[in-house]
Structures are given as C-alpha cells and as structure tokens.
Amino acid sequence: MEDLVPVALAPRLATRRLGRVYEFLASCGSTNDEIAARAAAHAEEGLVVAADEQTGGRGRRGRAWHSPPGENLYCSLFLRPDLPARLAPPLTLLASAALAQALTRLGFAPRLKWPNDVLLDTRTGLRKVAGVLAETASEGDRVRHIILGVGVNVNSRSFPEALSPIATSLRMASGRSLDRGELLAAFLNAFEPVYDGFLAAGPQVGLREWSRYAVLGQPCRVRRASRRIEGLATGIDATGALLLRTAAGETVAVHAGEVNWLPVSQAR
Fold first, then answer.
1. Given this model, what pLDDT does residue 60 score?
2. Per-residue confidence (pLDDT) for residue 268, from 0 to 100
3. C-alpha distance from residue 136 to each of 63, 85, 106 (Å)
4. Which of 49-53, 87-91, 160-164 has maximum average pLDDT?
5. What does each C-alpha distance from 166 to 146, 216, 256 come to in angstroms?
6. CATH code for the domain in which residue 252 is found
7. Distance CA 121, CA 219 (A)
8. Would you say 154 and 116 are in contact if contact means Cβ atoms under 8 Å apart?
9. Separation of alpha carbons 129 and 36, rounded Å
C-alpha cells in the first residue's frame, strides 16, 4: 500500500488544488460513497479519496467494479464547478481524456470508447483497462457537486471468469509492475488544466483531446429506452453526445444509452 500513501503522492503533484487534500483508505465500500459523505460535511473542491480495495465498487448502470486489494487504482475526485447541470456531462469525457493522456506519458497507447471506457489493444483485440464514473448532485438547474470515480486495472494478473474476455491490466499489457501513486499523480496533473479550461471557456479543448484517443468509425448499436439505433460512430458534438450516422444517412446525437460495438458484418 506504500505507493498510495499521502507522503508518496504529494511530491509528484504539479496541481494547485486537485489532490492537495488527500485521504488513503485500506478498505472501503466505494470511494465515491466516501466522497459523498464528506460532501455533506462541506468538503473542499479537489479532495481525493483512494482505497487499496473496495468491497462495493461500482461502474455505470450499477455494475460491480472488480476491486481486489493491493493491485489496482480506485479513487474519487470531488468537484464543485459553478455550472448549469446541463453542461456537466462532458466532464466524464474530459476525465477519460486526461486519464488517456496520463497513460500515454507512462508508455501506453490507450483508446477511448464513449462515454467512459479506456481500452488497450491486446492480441485478442481492444480490452477495457479503466473506467470513469461521474455522479452529479444538483440544486434546481445548477450543479451542487460532481464526484468523479476512476478505476484502473493496474497490477492485476487475472480476472474473474466473466471479465476475462473483456478486461486487461497495465501489468498484463506491459509485463511490469506499476506504481499506483505515480499513475494517480499523472492523472490529476493532466486533468486539472483540462478542467480549468472547461470552467473558463467550455469543454471544446478537452473534447478535442478525447477525440484524439477515440475509437471512431466503428459500427455500433445503442439502446435508449425502447428504441434501438444502429450506425457508425463518427464523433462527438459540443455537449459530448456521441454522433451516429445511420444507414439512411441520418446523424443521431446519443446523449445516454448502452453502446455495443458490432462486427462489420452485422452493421446495417
């Protein structure tokens, strides 16, 4: 656990405020829940909570996040942006882009799948190595706070049977053990300027950074409520919505939904 203790993280930070208040827990249910509890006690923006293990880690749509002890990075970041709630969704993409930037600086070649998956290429294709979960609390039409949860498979050597076909880790990809504190600092150092730029001028620069790493041109199927949409993923718009071009030539903006890639032979 020594790589994530506060004295190991602090010297690596180049940030002004993100991560300057930092808590490391040996175990917790979920780092997002730990931040939420501190938010109720008026935590300051930039607070980061990391854990050696999570007993109730979660991803999008309530899925469990595999969080064994001593292997990976599980952390959450507390933000208080002065924003209308409708402008908050791009933060998931901005955080994914910052994480991809951090991994690139550590020698990896990440790819991003909308809205929150970070992937690495393996001998059997692209597999998930990390994910970002944003949970927003609002008052009326304004953001009260946002909790960004980040999970990265760092040093895992194996996964449960259900995850083995779709997951990988940085260690499995590189053949070497990595320092989790170095990765956490690299992410915070990359995210703070993107976040500050978003607050000052909007998400455009950060969204362009996301697009640099994005997997696009891939046939996709998106399920939204009772509707199913199929098309090619061509990019994102200014709000961070995924743009799909259907076989009929229509461009559809997808703001939420479950995205599944299709083999080219199935695309219609």
1. 59
2. 38
3. 18, 8, 30
4. 49-53
5. 28, 19, 22
6. 2.30.30.100
7. 18
8. no
9. 25
- β-strand partners of 76: 49, 149
Question: Which residues are within 8 A (CB) of 128 and not within 5 positions of it... i.e. 6 or more apart?
Answer: 117, 118, 119, 153, 166, 167, 168
In the sheet where 142-152 sits, what is the strand order? 22-25, 48-51, 73-79, 142-152, 125-139, 117-122, 111-113
**Beta strands at 73-79 and 48-51: parallel, antiparallel or unpaired:** antiparallel
12-33 pLDDT, tens per residue?
999 999 999 999 999 999 999 9
In terms of residue numbers, what domain contains 124? 2-213
CATH code assigned at 14: 3.30.930.10
**Is the dihedral angle over the CA atoms 244, 93, 57, 108 positive or is it negative?**
positive
Are 195 and 251 part of one and the same domain? Answer: no
The verdict on whether omega for the bond into residue 219 sits within 30 degrees of 0, i.e. cis, is no
Strand partners, 150: 75, 132
Gap between the Cα atoms of 187 and 9, Å rounded: 12
pLDDT digits (tens, 9 = 90+) for 217-236: 989 998 776 778 899 999 99
Name the maximum alpha-carbon separation found in the chain: 57
The pLDDT score that the predictor gives to residue 11 is: 97
